[in-house]
Amino acid sequence: EEDVEVASVTTSPSRPSKLRRHRKLKALLLSKYDSVWNTTVALGWTPYTADQPGGSKYNVCWSDTSVSLERIMKMGRIQKINHFPGMLELVRKAGTARNLNKMLGAIGKDYKFYPQTFMLPADYTALKQEWTNGKNHGNKTFIIKPSKGCQGTGIQLTRCLDDISPHEPNIVQRYLHRPHLLEGFKYDLRIYVLLSSVQPLRIFLFKEGLVRVCTQKYAPLEKNMSDVRMHLTNYAINKGSEAFVQPEDDTECSDAHKRTVSSLMRTLEEDGHDTKKLWEQIGQVCVKTIISVKPHLQHTYFTCRGRSEDAGSGCFELLGFDIMMDSKLRPFLLEVNHSPSFTCDSPLDLAVKSAVLKSTMELVSFSKEEY
């Protein structure tokens, strides 16, 4: 698309002196995360809470949850908010499935990076077809996800149609049963992506992110479908395991169950894989996913913000894309998070998340000329 701009972010970008960021900004922080508060202070910003005098005169508002349309409509010329209106259409599992299924039908194989997905109860008849005419001899495994679930709650694996309720609003997907393994363990990637404008569509991919590793070695699916710590990479599920190892510092994480994307890429390079090609494919997954909701985002945004008063960058969104590779190292999208966790339980967490937050805030802040 002609009006899509994509860039990768490694560290905070340097700027010519004429574009230096204004450091005396006011930040309205509706956030529980210490890392968010500490980053604003480190940048020289003045943080406020909602009940403090001066909070309504913020330059940047950072909220852990979606903000009201009313707040976005009332934004001033030098104010920004960290959520786009209409973003729930992408980040809710049902919305992700609906939009990516639509793009798959319209465009074809370019959108095959999302596992075959059924939205219940609407798609239950189509799902039943997977068990008819000899299509499934007990070999196809499906993963059932509550449409509004998070942190792996309520997820289960099944090969039996009777385990799937035709009435519950669940998302049912083909299970990626041949994942790429890391030392015999299943893993996924948390890729941070910043959407800073909807017109043009301006997307930044952070080259550093997190790798979440299961705490139980992966084995072929037979009688182990209930072993959630073998099949689900969610940190909330695995951190309670006795086998879970936190990284001791922000560089040495080779034996830990949470690692950096850069350390994974080094491992893959040592094994002879083309990591440059892999990173390009991961970037394409992220960009194509956002493109699937571009019309909706633009329409919703400019309904709240007239085009004459806002070019399309009054909001921004820091997304967490969960990516898993199959045995051929092809990336697949698992889900998109519009409020990724910034809890820091280890030095590695702190290093990665603080860098992402700092770069994001610098990228979206106002220059001295704008201010």
From TrEMBL:
SUPFAM superfamilies: Glutathione synthetase ATP-binding domain-like (SSF56059). It comes from the Eukaryota. One of its GO terms (biological process) is microtubule cytoskeleton organization. Pfam families: TTL. GO terms for cellular component: ciliary basal body. The keyword ATP-binding applies. Keywords: ATP-binding, Ligase, Nucleotide-binding. One of its GO terms (molecular function) is tubulin-glutamic acid ligase activity. The keyword Zinc does not apply. This is Tubulin--tyrosine ligase-like protein 9.
